[in-house]
């Protein structure tokens, strides 16, 4: 997989840039490398090939998700240029993000539990460090410690689940495991079932699914704002895709073991995430609970698991990630990495900076699922996939949760347009950031024009 080689090479280049004194050109090298990685990924279209002794499976779904995370990362790097280059740890941050992307690329294309474990750990270790990268921040140090301890705890569940499944089947390969399940459909061993549930718990931790979500609000709030943006977009997308791949390719025929727990977790995640978000006055914490709720929506695709699920997952993760990156980017531009940004900071933003106000409005409308922004069609696709399989109760809960979510998203919009600001100064945004915000707005509106194209995609 050439994309993986490019990402690893970029990480090594970032590490060497300080030593070889070319860190001033590291930003353009990284962005160009990510564009090349995206192109190489798309070059493999329709290859459907096993690589590295069948440990990775490069199908079209893996290709589009790898391209998505690389594209999102280019946007993230452009938003983060000032943040990355303003202290002495520039090359370390570049390297950590690039190695996190390497782990992410493995997680969206694995066909072997060893590769899943390696991908999870490469991604997680990089994020543990980035969460506490602001050493002067007490909240950041707490976030990193909490993230590390709970993440390590989840890894224990993952390894134990893998060990139990290997002990029963004698294989780490998902495709071989699927054949084992088909051959023992009526008499699956109890240890195998326990292994499935343990892996589900571990991946639910990584995706911040209720009741394994309690680390996310504190970690999202304490981490630097742009690191939080990366967690809420790339990391969240990869965790859900890894979970989706696991149950579609590996455990799809053992649905009677995991289906009910996933339905319950989806319902709880949507309701708890949205309900608690309504009580939050800090924007980063509110968006953290919003991120939890969106993980619940994405679990609907795993429950439905039909011909529309893959297209719905791709479209939803794309629209959600762009909207979240836009929202966190604007929060960063307003308060430059301050941890506690309250809703009141957006009071009167429409007068201080109409462009930022419009960008935040589009982001909130998309996350809320208000037509005609792309977020509405993303939820519509997921709900339609579930309705085709007659999961009516799940869809009803999802609709109720979405209605609850409208309250806190509109709380920000109301502050922007209908409340007076105590600050007199105008929020200044440079040309580059204006272009990035404009691009995100265009994408969110443009993706709503052709949503059916994504629903028809078959990966």
Main β-sheet, spatial strand arrangement? 1-2
- Overall radius of gyration: 21 Å
Helix content: over 70%
Instruction: Please report the total strand number as a whole number.
Output: 2
| Structural classification | mainly alpha
Give the low-confidence spans. none
What is the count of DSSP helices, taking H or I runs of 4+ residues? 20
Reported for the largest beta sheet, the result is: 2 strands, antiparallel
- What amount of the residues lies in strands? under 5%
The ordered H/E elements are HHEEHHHHHHHHHHHHHHHHHH
Distance between the termini: 18 Å
Topology:
Elements: H1 2-19, H2 26-43, E1 49-51, E2 56-58, H3 60-79, H4 81-85, H5 90-107, H6 113-131, H7 138-169, H8 174-183, H9 190-206, H10 216-222, H11 225-250, H12 255-277, H13 283-304, H14 309-335, H15 349-352, H16 354-368, H17 374-388, H18 392-418, H19 431-446, H20 451-455
Antiparallel strand pairs: 1-2
Helix pairs in contact: 1-2, 1-5, 2-3, 3-11, 3-14, 5-6, 5-11, 6-7, 6-11, 7-9, 7-10, 9-11, 10-11, 10-13, 11-13, 11-14, 12-13, 12-18, 13-14, 13-17, 13-18, 14-16, 14-17, 14-19, 16-18, 16-19
């Amino acid at each position: 997989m050439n994309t993986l080689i490019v990402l690893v090479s970029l990480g090594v280049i970032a590490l060497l840039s300080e030593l070889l004194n070319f860190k001033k050109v590291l930003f353009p090298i990284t962005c160009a490398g990510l564009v090349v990685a995206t192109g190489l990924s798309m070059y493999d279209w329709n290859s459907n090939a096993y690589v590295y002794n069948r440990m990775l499976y490069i199908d079209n779904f893996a290709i589009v998700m790898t391209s998505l995370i690389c594209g999102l990362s280019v946007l993230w790097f452009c938003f983060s240029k000032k943040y990355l280059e303003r202290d002495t740890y520039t090359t370390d941050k570049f390297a950590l993000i690039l190695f996190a992307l390497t782990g992410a690329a493995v997680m969206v294309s694995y066909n072997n539990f060893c590769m899943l474990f390696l991908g999870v750990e490469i991604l997680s270790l990089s994020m543990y460090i980035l969460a506490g990268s602001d050493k002067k921040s007490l909240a950041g140090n707490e976030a990193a410690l909490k993230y590390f301890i709970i993440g390590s705890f989840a890894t224990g569940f993952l390894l134990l689940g893998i060990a139990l499944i290997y002990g029963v089947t004698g294989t780490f390969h998902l495709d071989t495991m699927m054949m084992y399940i088909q051959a023992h459909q009526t008499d699956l061993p109890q240890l195998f079932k326990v292994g499935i549930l343990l892996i589900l718990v571990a991946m639910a931790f990584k995706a911040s699914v209720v009741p394994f979500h309690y680390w996310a609000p504190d970690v999202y709030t304490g981490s630097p704002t742009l690191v939080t943006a990366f967690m809420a977009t790339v990391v969240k997308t990869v965790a859900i895709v890894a979970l989706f791949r696991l149950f579609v390719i590996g455990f799809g025929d053992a649905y009677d073991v995991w289906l009910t727990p996933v339905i319950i977790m989806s319902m709880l995640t949507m309701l708890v995430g949205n309900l608690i978000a309504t009580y939050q006055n800090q924007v980063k914490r509110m968006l953290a609970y919003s991120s939890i709720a969106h993980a619940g929506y994405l679990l609907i695709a795993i429950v439905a698991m039909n011909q529309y699920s893959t297209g719905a997952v791709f479209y939803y993760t794309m629209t959600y990630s762009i909207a979240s990156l836009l929202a966190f980017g604007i929060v960063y531009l307003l308060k430059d990495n301050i941890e506690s940004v309250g809703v009141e900071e957006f009071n009167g933003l429409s007068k201080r900076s109409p462009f930022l106000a419009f960008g935040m409005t589009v982001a909130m409308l998309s996350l809320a699922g208000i037509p005609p922004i792309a977020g509405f069609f993303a939820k519509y696709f997921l709900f339609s996939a579930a309705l085709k399989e007659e999961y009516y109760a799940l869809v009803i809960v999802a609709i109720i949760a979405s209605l609850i979510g409208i309250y806190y998203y509109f709380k920000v919009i109301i502050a922007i347009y209908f409340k007076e600001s105590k600050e007199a100064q105008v929020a200044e945004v440079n040309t580059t950031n204006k272009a990035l915000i404009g691009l995100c707005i265009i994408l969110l509106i443009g993706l709503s024009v052709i949503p059916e194209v994504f629903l028809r995609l078959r990966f």
